[in-house]
């Protein structure tokens, strides 16, 4: 079920009302209801993968209990390894099997052999990368002694499948989300109101920004890059930067806002990443739940991060795995490595991470960081490394700055909405989401809501279903 | 509860705005092509039996010469086709109560009919926006979604008129409700050049496998046909050469055979050069349309279920 769909418009109020008014007095019933609603939400897309979701979750719950009941380090290592094998195995089968088989075939061809390897024709279960990582972090955290295993299967299954964040995150840690399923929840009208505001901003970003930028991006990336002006190619990448931001951070805002309606807090997933002054800051602000997941479960365990060389090695390894997490294509690995490469000057300089918020005087650093990010998005969006290379090559080669061509791209409604987004988010950059701080007067607040609803309604495209980009990951 | 009340209070003006846009606003599109359904439906109920009824998708709307077919089969023809996106189920619903003894239903189904027989999309919104009487052909559980879509699109239409995005309200040269002949064939495109010049949109092939939900719909049509004393002939759509995939056609024939259905003639016979088409791989122009109809007549007349008068 997609967030911007009629089905969700009916589903959400019904689930909300039943959750608080029918099951609000009994935590177990509330969790059971959330579980059923979440499985319904997921099954609406394809019910055949519900079994996989259930089996994968139950597997981790059982392993979690086994881990807690085991004292010997060797046996504990064996249990956590089993969890890794199951989760990564599921992911590898559905997502990477053909990628690795193709790679092996290419290698065998290079060696003069005639490979005849089998490939799988299977559908990628939506959200598999998200829920396997969430589930996996649970067993790893038990192994590390950071959390206790739960004996409540309903709460655990509801934690893994919680519908707002099931298909595209944020990837929650058990230490943050699971306890919220184990203690009684009370309705907080202030949080719920704020959640609705965050959802509204999320819908605006998805429908007005991402879906408006998408047609330009699709057209430019599908065209013949060798005969396209460099400025057009640049704006193709520029609009993609806002398409993916609007799409994914919009989804996250809707997910976080929606879960607040149910008295459950999810962690912030985007913190105005395009106002970052360096690549390391960008990664502290972009897809935060994934970045911290990789930091805690890949980067840190690699060790040796106290030396410059160790840090660089870990960053390159972590980013290539992170790239691969996004999709079974060399372009994603290239995108990850490109970002890893961007870290080199920072590591060599040994600079300290800045925790304050950007100011106008930081504009040159913000623009430079944004430009680097835009260049890397070309790899992310391209079908292959060669097409990405050609795109970047012709973008630089044909970059002639004709004022007419520039005006053609700048003077567009999409650009006006992108600017609107930037202005609103710049003003709100110290807060959790763009509409977190609102005027005190009711009529002013309602005017802002009405404006956003109207603009979103006008941009809502009824002719096609616009999936979220991150659903495919 | 207070939050709910406030949310309802906030939503109320929006609902009123949508209702106002529905009552007083412009239609959701300036193109009224789907308005052609009304005349087709009226002809279906007005004609007695025996008659020939065509269903299937716009390949038949654009690419059938019904007067020629009428002459060959000595029966009046009603070409019910208009847009494959309405779905096979919608087409089958349209025929309920409209068939009689001796009728011949010819169904040159497009691949989307096999792949997704019961879609609900903006084509339904476009159709129901001008003809609410078609609501009965949409499943009850999809009606709220379709009407919500119409309400949203009506607001968008008000905005388009107000902002000047719809400057020209003259009817489309081809896609217009008055572009059909008496039998229901579209004729406004016949002498049009290929658009864009020398290139037509390639068919995006769906999975060659047939969706399981196709069979109950086909069986329902078969039941309706049998109970009315009519005959059903499944036929091939016309396809442009560059889009023809023999393997896809073979898999359709095989699957139909496995379910006890036969398909008339050979798919290859209904393939024509790309230049015979107007804007898509399915939309034949004048010459191609005549050739396609002649081939269909030949196939029909060599079939024992069909009686021809020449």
The helicity of chain B comes to 40-55%
Strand order of the largest sheet of chain B: 2-1-3-4
Structural class of chain B: alpha/beta
Number of helices of chain A: 20
Q: So what's the overall shape of chain B? A: globular
Helix-strand sequence of chain A: HHHHHHHHHHHHHHHHHHHH
Would you list the SSEs of chain B in sequence order as H and E? HHEHHEHEHHHHEEHEH
Largest two-chain interface: A-B, 17 and 18 residues
Produce a short descriptive summary:
The complex is a heterodimer of chains A (473) and B (310). Chain A has 473 residues and is mainly α.
Describe this structure as you would to a colleague.
Chain A has 473 residues and is mostly helical. Chain A has helices at 6-22, 27-46, 50-68, 73-110, 128-143, 153-161, 163-166, 174-182, 189-222, 230-261, 279-285, 288-302, 308-326, 330-342, 344-349, 363-381, 385-397, 403-410, 413-427, 442-459. The two termini of chain A are 16 Å apart. With 310 residues, chain B is an alpha/beta fold. Chain B contains 11 helices and 6 strands. Chain B has helices at 2-24, 36-46, 58-63, 66-73, 88-95, 111-115, 122-130, 143-163, 214-228, 246-258, 286-301; strands at 52-54, 77-79, 104-108, 231-235, 239-240, 271-272. The N and C termini of chain B lie far apart (75 Å). The mean pLDDT of chain B is 89. Helices cover 44% and strands 6% of the residues of chain B. The interface between A and B is medium-sized, with 17 and 18 residues.
